[in-house]
Amino acid sequence: IMPLVKFSSYLANSPRLERSRPRAIGVSVGLASALLIALFLVPAPQRLQVPGVLQAGTFADVTAGVDGEFERLLVPSGTRVKAGEPLARLRNDELVHQIAAVRAQLAELDALWRTGLNQGSRGRAALEQGITAVRGRAQELEERRSQLVVTAPLDGIWVGPRAEEMTGRWLSRGSPLGSLLGPGGFEFLAI
User: Fold this and answer.
1) Per-residue pLDDT tens over the stretch 18-30
2) Which of 46, 108, 132, 163 is the most buried (most CB within 10 A)?
3) By C-alpha distance, which of 58, 50, 48, 53 is closest to 188?
4) Could you tell me the maximum CA-CA distance found in the chain, to the nearest angstrom?
């Protein structure tokens, strides 16, 4: 502000501008007006270019919970789904055979336990421990079998693969199948 005050004082009081004061004031006002017009009336580009990534505010990666062969896609990509809704189905014949073997082993141990009711408690206790262990293994295998149906972890829009690209492909546990975009909108992350 001080330089403007000094310049105004110079224009108004300087003896050097005695003969050309009106012209000096006119040129000064004209230059100031041109500068203000250039700053406030001439449009300037208002863009900023920054590398980055557009990411959904709420999203979840959907992965295979168990090893298995991709059997079929239950929901096409771009469909709005609810949490828990089935998205894809896997097949694992080895897992089915393991479940059958464990069930047969459990039936055998149960039959041995029933025939051993008349025997001592020592033999029966060992059989009961074996039955408990085999039941735990059966429960674990059944839980793995339930994971052959891949479900949505949250509400959102399913973005998945094309069925013809995936059918018959072997997927390891944790293999990516797609993503769910939640209702939270998108955010830009600058890199």
Assistant:
1) 889 899 999 999 9
2) 163
3) 53
4) 134
